């Protein structure tokens, strides 16, 4: 192992490349030990594979930990190297555990050491998403419908809805696609930030609409209901015997007069005139505009529901196997997303 490490130092200029290649070399050495040497040594040293894993864990850790401690920011190459190192330690510990040699062995703790960097990386991604969302909101006109067909189907939504959901999903998936077990707190920080950005987007949709009461026209003035006049007309109508001829009776004439008066109420211009402010508020937003806004709100709600399911599923699949029950279940941190 030391000979391989010296060769890599001469060939590779970047530390993360050296770490990744050393981790790969360790796995190759462990595989060679299991396939070639352990079958011959097992008769004399039954735990030879576990002892080899223990030695490799100590040797590789001496090269790995100083580099991990020196990391100040994460990028794709560093994350790939860390993922390889985490996978290597899991395999080494598994081989040691089979022979009971893992007791007293201090794990590298790579994930715990880089957790603060994961929080910083997440905050940077959320800042970028916030800038994107502001540009998306400022370019929305609410005049033409498009949106994301996978979310809204045939219903037309604002073009910004599909764009902001795609950007949000890309940011969340970039965290979950790192290839390392992501701490639940980091995932919660990410989804809380995305939730806040989407909340602000929804607020921008309804901001011009004010309240529901502001869209309704003012109520018409009340009119008096003259019950005594209607009762008198009905009494006259019932007291007159029905005739077979189409002659007009006094009662029917009275009812027709009342009907005519009632009809005149609905045909006359009795509604109060709208002020200029009310006219602009009520008539300035078209039905198409309202439909796009309402459908976009519905699309965001559907998109966030799908996003929650994806986050929980991918987070669970990315966690390392555990011998005992986990202290934290997805429901503990996913509640309220």
Compact summary:
This protein has 337 residues and is mainly α. It contains 14 helices and two strands; from the N terminus they run αααααβαβαααααααα.
Architecture overview:
By secondary structure, the protein is mostly helical. The protein has helices at residues 2-11, 15-41, 48-70, 76-98, 110-139, 149-152, 159-176, 184-206, 212-215, 227-239, 250-267, 276-283, 287-317, 330-334, and strands spanning 145-146, 157-158. Helix content is 70%, strand content 1%. A two-stranded antiparallel sheet has the order 1-2. Helix 5 packs antiparallel against helix 7. The longest helix has 31 residues, at 287-317. It is elongated and about 120 Å long. The chain starts with a helix and ends with a helix. Residues 323-331 have low confidence and may be disordered.
Largest sheet data = 2 strands, antiparallel
Distance between the termini: 47 Å
Gyration radius, to the nearest Å?
Answer: 37 Å
Content of β-strand: under 5%
Kindly state the percentage of residues in helix.
Answer: over 70%
Order of helices and strands: HHHHHEHEHHHHHHHH
Nearest-integer average pLDDT: 77
Outline the low-pLDDT stretches: 323-331
Q: Taking strands numbered 1, 2, ... along the chain, how are they ordered across the largest sheet?
A: 1-2
| Class per helix and strand makeup | mainly alpha
Number of strands: 2
Shape: elongated
Number of helices: 14
């Amino acid at each position: 192992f030391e000979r391989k490490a010296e060769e890599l130092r001469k060939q590779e200029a970047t530390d993360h490349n050296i770490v990744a290649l050393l981790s790969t070399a360790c796995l190759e050495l462990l595989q060679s030990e299991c396939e070639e040497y352990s079958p011959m040594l097992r008769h004399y040293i039954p735990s030879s594979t576990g002892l080899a894993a223990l030695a490799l864990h100590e040797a590789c850790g001496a090269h790995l930990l100083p580099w991990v401690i020196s990391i100040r920011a994460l990028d794709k190459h560093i994350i790939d190297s860390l993922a390889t190192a985490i996978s290597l330690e899991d395999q080494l510990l598994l081989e040691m555990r089979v022979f009971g040699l893992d007791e007293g062995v201090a794990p590298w703790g790579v994930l715990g050491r880089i957790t603060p960097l994961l929080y910083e990386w997440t905050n940077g991604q959320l800042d970028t998403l916030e800038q994107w969302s502001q540009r998306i909101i400022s370019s929305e006109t609410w005049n033409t419908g498009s949106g994301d067909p996978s979310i809204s189907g045939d219903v037309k939504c604002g073009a910004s809805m599909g764009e902001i959901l795609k950007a949000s999903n890309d940011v969340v998936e970039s965290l979950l696609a790192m290839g390392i077990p992501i701490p639940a707190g980091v995932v919660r920080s990410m989804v809380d930030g995305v939730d806040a950005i989407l909340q602000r987007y929804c607020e921008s949709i309804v901001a011009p609409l004010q309240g529901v009461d502001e869209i309704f026209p003012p109520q018409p003035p009340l009119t008096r209901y003259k019950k005594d006049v209607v009762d008198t007309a009905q009494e006259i109508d019932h007291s007159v015997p029905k005739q077979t001829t189409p002659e007009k009776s006094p009662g029917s004439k009275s009812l027709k007069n009342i009907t005519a008066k009632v009809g005149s109420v609905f045909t006359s211009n009795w509604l109060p005139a709208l002020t200029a402010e009310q006219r602009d508020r009520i008539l300035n937003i078209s039905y198409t505009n309202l439909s796009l806004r309402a459908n976009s709100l519905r699309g965001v709600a559907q998109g966030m529901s799908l996003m929650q399911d994806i986050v929980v599923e991918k987070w669970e699949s990315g966690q390392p196997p555990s011998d005992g029950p986990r202290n934290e279940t997805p429901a503990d941190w996913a509640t309220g997303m």
